[in-house]
Amino acid sequence: MSRLPALRIWRVALPLALGALLVIFASAAPAPVPAAQSELGLLRERNLLLPVQGISASQLSDTYTQARAAGRPHEALDIMAARGTPVLAVEDGRVAKLFQSRAGGTTLYQFDLSGDYAYYYAHLDRYANGIVEGAALRKGDVIGYVGTTGNAPPDAPHLHFAIFRLGPERLWWRGTALNPYLLWRGGSSP
Fold first, then answer.
1. Hey, which bits of the chain come out as E strands?
2. Distance (Å, rounded) from C-alpha 14 to C-alpha 96?
3. What share of the chain is helix, strand, coil (3-state, %, to 5)?
4. Which residue from 74, 179, 177, 159 is spatially nearest to 118, judged by alpha carbons?
5. Which domain holds residue 144?
6. Are residues 23 and 48 in the same domain?
7. End-to-end Cα spacing for the chain
8. What's the rounded Cα separation, in Å, for the pair 75 and 77?
C-alpha cells in the first residue's frame, strides 16, 4: 500500500515536471521566421541592384501594401524616375517573357539563373535594343526605359518592380510575391 501513494505522486509530478521542461524548451526556441522574411534574407545575400539608374535606396517609398483598383493588392515597388531613365537588370539571369498588358503596359519578366525567382519590370517606355525573349542578362544591363505604359498615370513615370518566388512549374505569371522595398530599405514585415 505504501507504493500506491508514491505512484500517484509520480503520475502527478512527472507530467508537471515534463510540462515545466517543455515550457523551458519552448521559450528557449527561436520564433519561427515567416517564409517571406527568409526569402528576402536569401535575396539580400545576392546584393540585387536597384533597377532604376541613378536612384538610391533613400529615395524609395514602400508602395507594396497600397491598395489598387477593385481592392487588389499592389505587391510591387513603384520607383519614380524621369521618363527614359534606364532600367537595369537586378542580377544575372535571362529574359523569360516580353509582354504587353493593359495594366502593366510594356513589361519584361526576368528569371534568375536558378529559375527560382522572377523579376517583373512594368510600365516601360520601351525595351533596350537587343532585348528578346531568352536573352541572357548580366546584372546592370540596360533592359528598358522608365515610362507610363499600361495603366500608369501619364504624368507619373515610374518603374513598377515586383519579385516573385516561382513555384515548381516555373510559370512567368505566377509566384509568391515578396516586398522588394525591404531588400534595399530593410525592415521586418513580409
1. 77-80, 86-88, 93-101, 105-112, 117-127, 136-137, 142-146, 158-166, 175-178
2. 60
3. 25, 30, 45
4. 177
5. 35-185
6. no
7. 61
8. 7
Q: Cβ-count burial of 177 within 10 angstroms (0-12 exposed, 13-18 middle, 19+ buried)?
A: middle
Q: Which of 151, 156, 153 is nearest to 105 (CA)?
A: 151
Cell of 97: 517573357
64 and 5 in one domain? no
Is residue 143 assigned to a domain?
Answer: yes
What is the grid cell recorded at 53? 539608374
Asked if 18 and 39 sit in the same domain, the reply is no
pLDDT tens per residue, range 127-173: 999 999 999 999 999 999 999 999 999 999 999 999 999 988 877 77
Q: Are residues 83 and 121 in the same domain?
A: yes
